[in-house]
């Protein structure tokens, strides 16, 4: 019983974080048709901005978090404008350039901060005993904020004008242009949202799991898996996928910790083989 | 005079004609330019130490700092055979393939001696290069017994390898089991432990034989669970819960590359089990800061600390802290920094006794013979031990078997001698932001404390 409760709780805590990463990645794919392989690196850079501000410059933690989110919300559109847009008609080159950017960012952070994992100070302290396991408030808050952000995003896409524009753009670029949607502005906005989501995911994972510049390909694998699993460009699909991967990993960690990293890759290959269009196929945004 | 050796690797028979011609052409060019260019000229004026380590990690930086400190001290007192020492470095990034390239890179850039190799996988990666570059290689970072077993099997090709620290994985296991029996069981009354080990080459012999050896050592402590986790693990929540459920008195860690994350999460989760064992990352002077204040009460094994292990230990620790030419943020030597410093001074002594540099294989052999004299057996006792910062150092000899009950028929030539009065280890505990020695008793600076949430 307690094992089940533990899997349910820890699985949820980690999956909600994965969902943040996955949604940011899939939105860019949906709207701009770009597989941003630097998305995992954005997660990491966001965390390091806060680490720099909070542990090296001694800033207040909320201020440091805000700087990281704003920083990535500006950095991501900049990457789009300077690197991706000029070559947007050549998907293979875009693929390559985002991969190179990821490696460049990793190496830069390793140089600036060394490869030792870092932990960010907690947003809230204290902990609670829940169904036999001890969970810090920090993790609960992180999880709730993640779910809240995704909910807000969902609402925005479904119920606001901007959201409808995003949706339209993801369905048909030409059609969207015909009805007067400013594709460029919306694309920049989506990159900014994606960057901010990556930063939030990075901040939370650095504050309870820790972060290191190299070897942490996990966020990218998660994002990739989620997109492939959920169907390219589908937000609900990527949510499903994030939770499937989060729970699969939690269960593996419980019974076979040596193989933790293998599960997401294994699921990815199986789904790709038997259902190449993903679980939900291409649907919304 | 060329520094390149004329020993082709055994595989040279399989070289294609083209690559042979290329090689021969390059060789001819090198011969004709020899006196004018490159490392050959440098070699005449300085003796070059080549260090291969993950340069961007604390362990790479601490080793580099220790070597530069030692080189500065040696050069200030007249150098070695009238020549100054010089350091070149190459990055292994902690990876086997990069470590292999690093060995070749250092040899190509004119290194006379090689040292470094934080972590076993990286060291194992260098195996193919050792018989090719044929340079004395002093391991100061990896504990895998694979290399010294290789020396015993193929002496002519692997005689270049010596381990200055840490003691090999079998001895690390013996040290750990001894600590469990004498300290955790003997002093604290523990009855059950859970092993928490990262899944890598060096931890395998340790987790495999821990329980058996405890019994053989006369301990009644039970290993109630063995948790081996992937090094890429980021979330340790369920692992700690599993350990708690197993019902033990504490967690015995066996981790080197990981350590920061599990420690931080252990404290955040207030796991009701003390965290003791081998936790190499906890040797870092800023471990408390890296884990966001989670270091309190964490115990780790290390090669030495600021304690009178030998007369050289405390002066080295103080010199290291005061040496600010490089990496001023690294103020406490890691285990491989101690060993790197020892390697340098031991090498100096051996070269001076041999009276020659390793400019050809015959001269290299002379230096190897001098290194082999450290700890050579006379009447069954090791003699001519080198006084290092980590203890009195010497090497096992060829054909010397029965050195560990875990592999009684195997010889480990050129492996660091382990035992009382030789090289051993110290158990340190983080207390109020400082590392205190809790064992062995003769070097103890403080008693054991529980994690804050268990007090």
Low-confidence stretches of chain B: 1-43
Overall spatial form of chain A: globular
Q: SS-based structural class of chain A?
A: mainly alpha
Low-confidence stretches of chain A: none
Number of domains of chain B: 2
Helix content of chain B: 25-40%
Task: Provide a count of the helices of chain B.
Answer: 16
**Reading side by side through the largest sheet of chain B, how are the strands ordered?**
2-1-3-4-5
CATH topology of the largest domain in chain B: Rossmann fold
What is the overall pLDDT average of chain A?
85
Keywords summarizing the entry:
heterodimer, A: 285 residues, mainly alpha, two-stranded antiparallel ribbon, B: 455 residues, alpha/beta, Rossmann fold, five-stranded parallel sheet, four-stranded parallel sheet, 16 helices, 16 strands, globular, disordered N terminus
Task: Summarize, please.
The complex is a heterodimer of chains A (285) and B (455). Chain A has helices at 2-32, 39-56, 61-84, 91-113, 137-159, 161-171, 173-178, 183-208, 218-230, 235-255, 262-274; strands at 127-130, 133-136.
Description:
The complex is a heterodimer of chains A (285) and B (455). Chain A is mainly α. In chain A, 73% of the residues lie in helices and 3% in strands. Chain A has a two-stranded antiparallel ribbon. In chain A, α5 (137-159) packs across α6 and α9 packs across α10. The longest helix of chain A has 31 residues, at 2-32. The N and C termini of chain A lie far apart (39 Å). The mean pLDDT of chain A is 85. In chain B, the strands form five sheets. Chain B has a five-stranded parallel sheet with strand order 2-1-3-4-5. By secondary structure, chain B is α/β, with parallel strands linked by helices. Chain B is 38% helix and 17% strand. Chain B has two domains: 11-166 and 315-393, Response regulator (Rossmann fold, 3-Layer(aba) Sandwich); 169-302 and 438-454, Response regulator (Rossmann fold, 3-Layer(aba) Sandwich), CATH 3.40.50.2300. Chain B has helices spanning 17-33, 38-45, 58-76, 96-108, 120-125, 130-133, 146-153, 155-158, 169-185, 204-216, 237-245, 260-268, 287-290, 313-322, 335-354, 361-373, and strands spanning 46-53, 84-91, 113-116, 137-139, 161-163, 192-198, 222-229, 250-255, 275-279, 299-302, 377-378, 381-382, 386-387, 392-393, 426-431, 434-439. Chain B has 16 helices and 16 strands. In chain B, α3 (58-76) runs parallel beside α15, α9 crosses α10 (204-216) and α15 (335-354) packs across α16 (361-373). The A-B interface holds A 2, 6-7, 10, 13-14, 55, 110-111, 114-122, 127, 133-136, 138, 205, 208-210, 214-216, 218, 249-250, 253-254, 257-261 and B 54, 56-58, 61, 93, 199, 227-230, 232-235, 237-239, 241-242, 245, 260-261, 264-265, 268-271, 281, 284, 289-292, 294.
